[in-house]
Amino acid sequence: MIDVPAGQVTLSDRRTQRSWAVELAPYQLGAFPITQALFAEVTDERPSTAVGNRLPVEGVSWWDAARFCNALSRREGLEPTYLLHADAENPADTENPADIEWDASADGYRLPTEAEWEHACRAGTTGARYGPLDEIAWYRRNSHERIHDVGGKRANTWGLYDTLGNVWEWCWDLYDAEVYGTYRVLRGGGWFDEHWSCRASVRRRSHPTFQIDDVGFRVARSTVR
């Protein structure tokens, strides 16, 4: 886990032409997206289309990512961050919870907010990317249209790899509840995307149950005070 300093980031949405500033306390973020090896070690599951221990796990829904965070927390003796609530009409269906709460007092793993994600991706830079794209990311022009092992490209100055390219990453936030309901935010661009999608500010959305072969995640932790 990488210690990310406090700071401010300004998010923007191209569709609504809206921008908003977010103040952030210090937190921790995984240096890499979660790998298939770690996901299998924690969950006994291998959902990905491509196979390789050092490849980012993909084909995971937002709910899968949230459950992984809780499972990893329990394995390391930490308090799970997420409280999952079953559907009242289907209480036995633990695979498809109806609601989730974030317990901000818990010390376990969680998904980053999109503000945390962008702040960490930028690592103090203000441009579209923290370096030349071919040096820092796997994307459509250099990926040979396939996923790659984590850590194969240059990290940003804070020590974070693959924030751009390789796989899109689930974030905690709802994308736009009034228009898109429960759709959650994705960030970073993936191995099949053109260069314009692999920018620090780009937002994408997906339904939290969807499992896509270019979508993974990395974990965060709040800094214990």
Short overview:
The chain has helices spanning 36-43, 62-75, 114-122, 133-136, 177-180, and strands at residues 2-4, 7-13, 18-24, 27-29, 82-85, 99-102, 168-174, 184-187, 203-206, 215-216, 220-222. By secondary structure, the chain is of the alpha+beta class.
Describe the structure.
The radius of gyration is 17 Å and the shape is globular. The protein has helices at residues 36-43, 62-75, 114-122, 133-136, 177-180; strands at 2-4, 7-13, 18-24, 27-29, 82-85, 99-102, 168-174, 184-187, 203-206, 215-216, 220-222. It is α+β, with helices and mostly antiparallel strands and 225 residues long. 17% of the residues lie in helices and 21% in strands. The chain has a four-stranded mixed β-sheet with strand order 9-8-7-10, with helices on one face. It has one domain: paralog of FGE (formylglycine-generating enzyme).
Task: List descriptors.
single chain; 225 residues; alpha+beta; paralog of FGE (formylglycine-generating enzyme); three-stranded antiparallel sheet; 17% helix
Give the SSE order as H and E letters.
EEEEHHEEHHEHEEEE
| CATH level-1 class | Alpha Beta
Radius of gyration, in angstroms, nearest whole number: 17 Å
**Span from first to last CA?**
17 Å
The portion of residues forming beta strands comes to 15-25%
Please bin the fraction of helical residues. 10-25%
CATH homologous superfamily classification: paralog of FGE (formylglycine-generating enzyme)
How many H/I helices?
A: 5
